[in-house]
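Need residues for this backbone.
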């Protein structure tokens, strides 16, 4: 009897420890949602002027280069992005065998969805799976998967197109330095048979001066690479785009007011 009591107590203690096992941290939003904040507002007064004023050409060309990928995120990925953001407002439940589940509802694109974000610990990595259900339409559609290092410094996501077209669409690769808030995130079009397959946009945030943020954009159809650099505080920046400016890739700069200026 004594042995049974000891064994039962040990089992209960182990079960409690397992139930209390802390969930891994969800990688921050910056690993999933690229920062378009300086190039996403069509109501920007300088942008309005730029439509009719060639002295804003460098910034406007940068804006137009970024707007396509911004549209991908805000239109084609609006539901999985909303589900990702909502996860931070909820706690996970331990499901045994180093698996945790965040379950909640989220409203996006005029619809309500049931989300199940699952994390599985394996060695030094965490695998992520986001299942979304919309009543009457689809159940537990795997909208994206991911893999992140246990230290939270590197990882990737794979975003699928839609429940109607469940094909890999955008591959996201990211790295970050939590101590300095710097890092990189890259979106690549991996949709089979798409004309833009292989095209990508990469965003980086650094401690460099005078430009601490940058985009590199590759257009597969045009075989064109565009480079954009700017200062996140002053908004001063520059662009290299050989086909848009037909000049072999020289830098074209803009000032704090987004007006063209001679590059130093």
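Answer:
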């Amino acid at each position: 009897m004594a042995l049974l009591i000891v064994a039962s107590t040990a089992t209960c203690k182990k079960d409690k420890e397992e139930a209390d096992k802390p969930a891994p941290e969800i990688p921050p939003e910056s690993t999933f949602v690229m920062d378009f904040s300086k190039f996403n507002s069509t109501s920007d007064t300088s942008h309005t002027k730029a439509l009719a004023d060639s002295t804003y050409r460098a910034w406007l060309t940068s804006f137009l280069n970024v707007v396509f990928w911004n549209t991908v995120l805000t239109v084609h990925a609006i539901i999985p992005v909303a589900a990702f953001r909502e996860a931070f407002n909820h706690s996970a439940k331990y499901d045994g065998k180093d698996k945790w589940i965040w379950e909640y509802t989220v409203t996006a694109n005029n619809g309500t969805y049931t989300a199940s974000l699952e994390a599985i610990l394996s060695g030094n990595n965490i695998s992520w799976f986001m299942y979304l259900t919309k009543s009457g339409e689809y159940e537990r559609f795997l909208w994206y998967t991911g893999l992140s290092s246990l230290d939270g410094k590197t990882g990737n996501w794979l975003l699928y197109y839609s429940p109607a077209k469940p094909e890999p669409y955008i591959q996201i690769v990211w790295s970050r330095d939590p101590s300095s808030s710097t890092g990189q995130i890259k979106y690549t079009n991996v949709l089979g048979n798409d004309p833009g397959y292989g095209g990508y946009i990469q965003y980086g945030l650094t401690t460099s001066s005078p430009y601490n943020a940058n985009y590199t954009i590759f257009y597969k159809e045009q075989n064109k690479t565009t480079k954009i650099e700017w200062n996140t505080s002053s908004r001063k920046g520059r662009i290299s785009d050989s086909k848009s400016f037909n000049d072999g890739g020289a830098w074209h700069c803009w000032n704090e007011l987004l007006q063209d200026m001679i590059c130093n």
